[in-house]
């Protein structure tokens, strides 16, 4: 029996810079309509990963946690937007529906921190990254693809990180 679910990859980051670099490589693969679920406790590196995702996608905007504003928008030079949603303060799936997630997905990729809190209203096809704090410098990420598009992203990410399919 495999240790990881099918279509999954474990990645261990040993620094904030390494977490950002992984995000850079993954972000370069994103396109409009893509959904990234981020799951993990406080301090697990979610926002650091999003800093890399946004930069790899092509945004020069500074990235910060959208905890109090719920959604940050990062601009691409071509006019596109990457949406960064923090579901931590949402009261549940009904509040998430009020954000009109479909409209966000029509205009760019959507990255959702604390996605497990509102999964009922989110697309089932996605790339899910479960993040875990190990120690001050180390984070463990299990990246799982749900759907063919995300299996392709994961395969391409694996090649960019490890040089193998």
Explain what this protein looks like in three dimensions:
With 165 residues, this protein is α/β, with parallel strands linked by helices. It has one domain: 3-Layer(aba) Sandwich (Rossmann fold), CATH 3.40.50. The chain has helices at residues 16-27, 46-57, 93-97, 101-107, 148-162, and strands at 8-13, 35-39, 71-75, 81-86, 110-113, 126-135, 138-146. Strands 1-7-6-2-5-4-3 form a 7-stranded mixed sheet. The longest helix is centred in the C-terminal third of the chain and has 15 residues, at 148-162. The chain starts with 7 loop residues before the first strand and ends with a helix.
Q: Which fold name is given in CATH as the topology?
A: Rossmann fold
Question: What percentage of residues falls in helices of 4 or more residues?
Answer: 25-40%
Query: Major sheet: size, sense and barrel closure?
Result: 7 strands, mixed
Tell me the β content: 25-35%
Contiguous low-pLDDT stretches (5 residues minimum) are none
The overall pLDDT, averaged over residues, is 89
Broad shape: globular
CATH class assignment: Alpha Beta
Secondary-structure element string: EHEHEEHHEEEH
User: Architecture in CATH?
Assistant: 3-Layer(aba) Sandwich
Name the CATH superfamily assignment.
P-loop containing nucleotide triphosphate hydrolases
Radius of gyration: 15 Å
Record field, number of beta strands: 7
User: What is the subunit organization of this protein?
Assistant: single chain
């Amino acid at each position: 029996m495999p240790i990881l679910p099918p279509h999954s990859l474990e990645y261990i980051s040993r620094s904030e810079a390494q977490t950002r670099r992984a995000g850079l490589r993954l972000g370069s693969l994103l396109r409009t309509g893509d959904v990234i679920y981020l799951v993990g406790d406080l301090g697990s590196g979610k926002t650091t990963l999003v800093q890399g995702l946004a930069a790899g996608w092509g945004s020069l905007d500074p990235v910060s946690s959208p905890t109090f504003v719920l959604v940050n928008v990062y601009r691409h030079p071509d006019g596109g937007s990457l949406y960064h949603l923090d579901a931590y303060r949402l009261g549940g799936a009904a509040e998430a529906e009020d954000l009109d997630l479909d409209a966000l997905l029509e205009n760019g990729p959507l990255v959702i921190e604390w996605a497990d809190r509102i999964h009922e209203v989110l697309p089932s096809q996605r790339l899910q990254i479960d993040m875990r704090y190990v120690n001050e410098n180390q984070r463990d990420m299990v990246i799982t693809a749900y759907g063919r598009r995300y299996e392709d992203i994961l395969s391409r990410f694996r090649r960019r990180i490890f040089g193998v399919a």
